[in-house]
Amino acid sequence: MPDPAALFADAAATVADLLDRVAPDAWDGPGLGAWDLRALVGHTSRSLVTVITYLDGPAVEERVGSAAEYYALIKTGTIPGTADPEAIVERGRRAGAQLGDDPAAAFRALIGPATAKVAEVGPDTVVETIAGGMRVDRYLTTRTFELVVHGLDIAAATGGEVVFAPGVLSEALGMSAEVAVRLGEGEAVLLALTGRRPLPAGFCVV
């Protein structure tokens, strides 16, 4: 079975390699939606920052049993504040500003502390997240997903190329399908993947 910690580290390194190729004058250019590239990368860096900070906070009990449940709770608005678009945009902008004058180097510098923290606490430790207590290995799957999706966003914004390892892509895609099932959209996704019926415009599981 794939190791969530190894997949997380692999995804982070792949994004860091992509950022190393970003032109110096691109950081204030288009990123995604209301974000410029710096804010998009800042938001992506939170996949590392939250691992460093959350893993310092052991939870009293496990309340979220999987990465798919985590995203389903957020998507359905069950967790107050997590679905506020303006708040999400602002957090990305603040995170981008915190990366300083060399966002690529700052992003790469976060990988070591994040992976070290994962090794320190172990996969079965229950930590507090915005959705409630989760085991580390399950929370890491959400972070790998964020790195993959936003890594692809960054590549699209910059015209760069990013190639994630097959195992990393499989984990992200598999979790997306699980979220779709939890949201009652599993059949729609399966029909689209098998060429039977296109997904509706704007369809999104996260």
TrEMBL record:
Gene3D superfamilies (UniProt xref): dinb family like domain (1.20.120.450)
Keywords, alphabetical: Isomerase
GO MF assignments: isomerase activity
SUPFAM superfamilies: DinB/YfiT-like putative metalloenzymes
Name this polypeptide is given: Maleylpyruvate isomerase N-terminal domain-containing protein
InterPro entries given in the database record: DinB/YfiT-like, MDMPI_metal-binding
Organism: Pseudonocardia humida
Keyword Isomerase among UniProt keywords: yes
